[in-house]
Design a protein that fits this description.
The complex is a heterodimer of chains A (about 300) and B (about 375).
Chain A: E1 3-12, E2 15-25, E3 30-34, H1 41-48, E4 56-61, E5 64-65, H2 70-76, E6 77-80, H3 92-102, H4 111-121, H5 134-146, E7 152-156, H6 164-179, E8 183-188, H7 191-194, E9 199-204, E10 207-212, H8 214-220, E11 225-229, H9 233-242, E12 246-252, E13 255-260, H10 267-276, E14 283-287, H11 291-299
Parallel strand pairs in A: 3-8, 3-9, 6-7, 7-8
Antiparallel strand pairs in A: 1-2, 1-4, 4-5, 9-10, 11-13, 11-14, 12-13
Helix pairs in contact in A: 3-5, 4-5
Chain B: H1 2-17, H2 21-26, H3 28-39, E1 47-53, H4 58-69, E2 73-78, H5 82-91, E3 96-100, H6 104-111, E4 117-120, H7 125-150, H8 156-159, H9 177-208, H10 210-215, H11 221-251, H12 259-282, H13 287-303, H14 316-322, H15 326-340, H16 348-372
Parallel strand pairs in B: 1-2, 1-3
Antiparallel strand pairs in B: 3-4
Classes of the chains: A alpha/beta (about 300), B mainly alpha (about 375).
Chain lengths: ~300, ~375
């Protein structure tokens, strides 16, 4: 196993950030940790990158123990924290050189690994890192995390605050990196990115809710999902919550995602109910459940 | 060893790109030395002097003339009454009121003895003391003049016995205040800049988040700390050199002692300050916090260093506290070596205490660094 986590617990003063976390990541896998803000994603990353010592439990990264063998881990993993944390007053090239040097390697030595990404920022190599755009900073950070040819790459919310086009581009880069045999552990609060991972783990309030491939997780979802919209969205959601057969109702984009307690929902019946509540322009149709629907169902 | 070199190289690059740090390093020394050395003086001049002459005779006028002739006194007014003089003192228009009594000349001639009343504004106690000495000197010299005038043949035997002291001021012949202040301000400069910059520098890595990235690399903590502090050690010694140059060229302060000894002591002293800086940065999260705490220690250290006020005149308990003040020893050593030409044996007590501090502070700093990170 590339990463093996066994019953990790970690508490801050009065919050238990991680509760009995266990999972395994196979070599060469792109594994996603999906969860809302404050779920414990960053804490988990800090434990696995040897920045934090867990209260109990054990874990190995590249078969090195995170406590007794932390030095070996630091030599063999790449870590990209959620917050941009390179030297803003050094240039792109100087940052990359510095990180290469402290790992006793050079840009030339591992150039083929970062080439795809680096060519995009190379025109700005004499610009200070602080003056780069968000997407460029992220690419530089990824280069710096890769420059010593790590066996495992940790990416903590790499796409938070990045525009949709750059996000897509970034995931393409990850897919290409995965082809080199690199194991990647990535966390994200975006449910749509979950589908791009080989396997995902849902995490909430420090506990893992479910671990599986995105498709398998979708199949777990047994309820039918309906897209409902009307002229008054606020009243619509209030009415649905008051409806006796409602299993769940939550906003999803411009509509409300609704599921019913019964297996055979009569759309007409629901339509009449909403009409009675004074709503107009009501549209109800069935839709495919998404990863987000699954998460909402699990989190309930 | 190679990694250490890369860290130091990176550190210097960052220092020279920091628009906040550069002026502090290169402009502050000049401004502090040039302005402070001229402004921070205990010489008291332009004393606002006034008098009430109730006698109006040639004797009283001669006394006033003596004051007018002195370069320290600025004779302002002649008040007709004590009341007016007092209200002027209350307004802060005058510092000194000399009251010459009625029948000053007559009594002096008849009884050879008279009392003069002098009122001094003593809000600034130190200044009042100095003023009082000046006044006494003038009156003493007036006494001598008048004594000759009033002398009668039969007094001759008595006045012959007159002891006079002629002081010789060693190490600072002309009592030039700058000679005393410049070495002290040099100390201030080296201390302030190395403490502030080193404290802020490490916290900065924490604040920006780069420390987290560094911690996931194989860099050893000792390499990181030494790499971060070494540049400031160099800058501290550089500041000493600039300061000594200014002292010599601009203020013509004598540098009698051994330069190598000064550098040896300073290089150890900076280690103490860097240790304090590191210690502070371990307990703070932002550069602002580090700055405030550094200031707090700095102000206490400076005021209790003997730089501006002599330690000997502090209460006993305060003197005990100054034993733990590294700046005190640095001020002493700089003055001793620069002005007196003291050798290594003379500064041995200060040197050994500074080495001890260097070990204690850096030990504490490294211990707390491990604990908090």
């Amino acid at each position: 196993m590339s990463i093996s986590v066994n019953k990790i617990n970690k508490s801050y003063k009065n919050v238990q950030a991680l509760k009995d976390i266990s999972f395994d990541v196979k070599p060469g896998e792109l594994f996603g940790i999906i969860g809302p803000d404050g779920a414990g994603k960053t804490t988990l990353f800090r434990v696995l990158t040897t920045l934090l010592i867990p209260d109990s439990g054990n874990a190995t990264v590249s078969n090195f123990d995170i406590i007794t063998d932390f030095k070996s881990i630091r030599n063999s993993v790449g870590y990209m924290p959620g917050k941009f944390s390179l030297y803003q007053d050094l240039t792109v090239e100087e940052n990359l050189n510095f990180f290469a040097n402290i790992f006793k390697t050079s840009i030339q030595e591992n150039y083929d690994l970062i080439k795809d990404i680096y060519v995009q920022i190379e025109p700005f190599k004499n610009r200070r890192a602080g003056k780069l755009s968000g997407g460029m900073k992220q690419k530089l950070a990824l280069c710096c995390a890769l420059i010593h040819k790590p066996t495992v790459l940790f990416l903590d919310e790499p796409t938070t605050g990045v525009d949709p086009v750059s996000r897509k581009e970034f995931w393409n880069m990850l897919k290409r990196l995965q082809l080199t045999g690199l194991t990647i552990l990535v966390s994200t609060p975006y449910m749509d990115e979950a589908a791009l991972c080989d396997r995902i783990a849902f995490i909430q309030n420090g506990s893992i809710l479910e671990i599986d491939t995105p498709n398998a997780i979708l199949n777990h979802f047994s309820k039918k999902i309906y897209n409902i919209s009307a002229d008054n969205m606020y009243q619509l959601i209030e009415s649905l919550k008051a409806y006796e057969h409602t299993y769940s109702a939550y906003p999803f984009g411009e509509c409300i995602h609704y599921s019913d307690k019964r297996t055979d929902l009569k759309i007409n019946e629901l339509y009449e109910f909403l009409k009675l509540k004074g709503l107009d322009h009501i549209i109800i149709d069935q839709t495919k459940p998404s990863i987000e629907d699954t998460f909402m169902a699990l989190a309930n | 060893m190679k990694i250490l070199g890369f860290i130091i190289q990176k550190e210097f690059k960052q220092i020279f790109r920091n628009k906040g740090m550069l002026p502090i390093i290169f402009i502050m020394p000049f401004i502090q030395l040039i302005i402070l050395s001229n402004a921070a003086t205990f010489d008291i001049k332009n004393i606002k002097f006034s008098y009430i002459d109730n006698d109006h005779t040639s004797f009283s006028r001669a006394l006033i003339n003596k004051f007018e002739a002195s370069k320290y006194f600025h004779v302002l007014t002649d008040f007709p009454s004590e009341q007016l003089a007092n209200s002027a003192m209350l307004n802060g228009d005058v510092d000194i009121i000399l009251e010459i009594p009625n029948h000053f000349e007559r009594d002096l001639q008849k009884e050879k003895h008279i009392n003069l009343r002098v009122t001094i504004n003593a809000i600034d106690g130190a200044a009042a003391g100095v003023e009082s000495v000046y006044i006494n000197q003038i009156i003493k010299s007036y006494n001598k003049d008048i004594g000759l005038k009033l002398m009668q043949p039969n007094d001759l035997q008595i006045t012959a016995l007159n002891i006079e002291t002629i002081p010789s001021f060693w190490y600072n012949k002309t009592l030039n205040y700058k000679t005393f202040m410049v070495p002290g301000i040099l100390v201030l400069l080296v201390t302030m800049i190395t403490l502030f910059l080193s404290g802020m520098n490490i916290v900065r890595e924490k604040e920006i988040g780069t420390l987290e990235q560094i911690n996931v690399t194989p860099i050893k903590k000792s390499q990181f700390i030494i790499g971060k502090l070494f540049p400031f050690w160099v800058i501290g010694l550089g500041l000493l050199s600039i300061g000594l140059l200014i002292a010599k060229v601009l203020f013509d302060v004598p540098i009698i002692g051994n330069l190598a000894l000064m550098y040896l002591y300073t290089s150890i002293y900076i280690l103490v300050i860097l240790g304090i800086g590191l210690f502070i940065s371990n307990f703070t999260e932002t550069q602002q916090q580090a700055m405030f705490i550094s200031w707090f220690f700095m102000v206490i250290f400076i005021l209790m260093s003997g730089l501006f006020t002599p330690i000997e005149s502090m209460p006993k308990w305060a003197q005990m506290i100054t034993e733990f003040n590294p700046i005190k020893y640095f001020v002493q050593v700089m003055r001793m070596v620069m002005l007196k030409g003291s050798g290594i044996n003379d500064i041995l007590p200060q040197l050994s205490k500074t080495i001890l501090f260097a070990f204690i502070m850096n030990g504490l700093a490294i211990w707390s660094y491990k604990k908090t990170n």
